[in-house]
Amino acid sequence: MPQRGETSMKQCRSEVKPGRRRWRHRKAGFAAGGVLVVVLTYLLVSQQLAARARYVIITKAQWTTDEQLIRAPGATAEKEGTVSCSSEGYFSESCEVDGDVRVNGRVLTVTVVGPTNGSDPVEWRIRPYAQKYVGEVRKATVTLVPGAPAAACTVAHTVPAVLFAIGGHSGRNFFHDYSDVLVPLFAASRRYGGEVQFLISNVAWPQWLDKYHHLLRRLSRYPAVDLDADDAPVRCFPHVTVGLHIHKLLTVVPESAPGGDGRCLTTADFTKFQREAYALPRNATRRRGRRGRRGCWFVNVEEVARAAEAAGFEAVVTDLWAWGESDVAGKARTVNSFDAMLGVHGAGLTNAMFLPPGAVNIQVVPYGRMEAIARSEYGDPMTDMGLKYLEYVIDLQESTLLETLGPDHQAIRDPEAVHRSGWDQVSEFYLKKQDVRVNITRFAPTLAQAFHHLRQQLQ
Ligand SMILES: *[C@@H]1O[C@H](CO)[C@@H](O)[C@H](O)[C@H]1NC(C)=O
Ligand SMILES: *[C@@H]1O[C@H](CO)[C@@H](O)[C@H](O)[C@H]1NC(C)=O
Ligand SMILES: *[C@@H]1O[C@H](CO)[C@@H](O)[C@H](O)[C@H]1NC(C)=O
């Protein structure tokens, strides 16, 4: 009897070990080398807050406990249609539909003929966006019908399809573009080596497809079908994956990501894929010198930059958000030319995935018990990407909240209570209203550690 995620779980061997050790034997000097991008993303954070409430309170426990298998009873025969749905994890639900599968885009139905337990159809309602709580994304209906074949095919495809929605949080926020769509899509479709048809619903921002065409066209060699506007009433496929699945934020979990060659994919494979797609030249850290523009993000950004230079880096302060929404490739190439990135918790840190493996990512965690969120959104994924992740949790003295709210405010005295009252409060105080004035003395050891890490690799 096939088990949960059968199509994905057991078809690959996990080797895990990405990245880092590859560079150990590089010979290169590192005298004055290395560059630090100081990226601070506070001003941008507010854009993502409203939409983020649902998942931010997750804990590790939720990753592993909320596991459930929905399966059509008795669906075992090879030639007969099968539906295997999973709502594993906290975020997503998805179905693997196998057999003679028919898709109607306008009404968003996916139908396959196969044995059901009795004479009634079995139906699943799946939100094909990886964050299932995003209400604005229309649900798809997956139906296993007994007996008679469904309607004739208008277009008969010979390749499998992946059906997913864009919109939701994606398109509004760089982090969500990756965590909710691009990384899970890679995990779902890379195995096909381009021989896969993307069926996209909820195309709220058509420019999104242009923005990420470098990645999309490498995953699928066929133009994506906009299901909302699809004129073909019945598209037929041998297999359809309905919905994308986040197993862990911004991470490719090997057990659920077959590479198609017997090997499991890792997050490092995703970053490698990006380097290929954007023709990023650097797949390892090395000595560089470069000057860039200056902006102002941290309250004392100039001081932070000087501290970085004192630690041995050449520092460039830049606002990656200002790079223009559409030019992901240009931004990716710029980030790829650095050896380290430093930024306050926020979507801008997502750009660290363009760094070469072995590079350092320093996340500055704001005041207010934000460590767990910071780690699950960026810390853990960056480590999986083969980056050296360092974290600097600021002290109350380094937060502008102390001045703006005063020492007696609840947000200062009792962050736990603020967390208990909900995400709106957490975001209001700790993300929207807070700026960071880094205590250079306290921060210096973190910079030294970053520099030391890079130098070690290059010896
Ligand atoms: C089919 O449904 C009946 C009644 O709901 C149930 O008792 C039986 O276990 C089911 N059979 C399978 C194979 O799931
Ligand atoms: C890194 O890129 C160089 C030049 O393209 C290539 O020769 C080398 O094999 C690559 N190394 C890895 C580990 O991908
Ligand atoms: C900065 O950090 C150092 C070391 O932790 C500490 O001794 C000093 O008091 C801090 N300075 C301020 C202004 O908080």
TrEMBL record:
Keywords from the UniProt entry: Glycoprotein, Glycosyltransferase, Membrane, Transferase, Transmembrane, Transmembrane helix
Record-annotated membrane-spanning stretches: 28-45
Database matches in InterPro entries: Glyco_transf_61_cat, Glycosyltransferase_61
Main location: Golgi
Domain of life: Eukaryota
Cellular component GO terms, alphabetical: Golgi membrane
Bilayer topology annotation: Single-pass type II membrane protein
Localization (cell): Golgi apparatus membrane
Residues in Glycosyltransferase 61 catalytic domain copies: 175-360
Molecular function per GO: pentosyltransferase activity
Pathway the protein contributes to: Glycan metabolism
Protein name: Glycosyltransferase 61 catalytic domain-containing protein
Native source organism of the sequence: Eragrostis curvula
Taxonomic lineage: Eukaryota, Viridiplantae, Streptophyta, Embryophyta, Tracheophyta
